[in-house]
Write a structure and sequence with these properties.
Layout (H helix, E strand, L loop, with lengths): L28 H28 L7 E2 L2 E2 L15
Length: 84
């Protein structure tokens, strides 16, 4: 199995905020935009980093990703943790 080309990695991008933060009452527009950019934007950055790391792995030489066995991601009958 060959390694995935970095150009073929799906890049996750932030979607526009679904509401006009200036029209919401109770919270400032600055607070809403700040939380949106920091929390959602940070999650997108981490998701892209994880996607890039997964794409660069060769399952033949990297059977474990952190504490998660790669077989859990393979869709095999034993792909779910015990008790679920």
């Amino acid at each position: 199995m060959s390694r995935t080309n970095k150009a073929s990695i799906m890049i996750y991008e932030m979607k526009p905020l679904g509401v006009d933060p200036g029209k919401l009452t109770g919270l400032s527009e600055k607070l809403i935009v700040s939380h949106y950019e920091n929390n959602y934007g940070g999650a997108m950055k981490r998701l892209n980093a994880i996607a890039a790391e997964l794409a660069s792995l060769d399952p033949a030489i990297a059977p474990v990703l952190g504490a998660i066995p790669m077989t859990w991601m393979a869709g095999s009958p034993r792909s779910t943790p015990a008790g679920r």
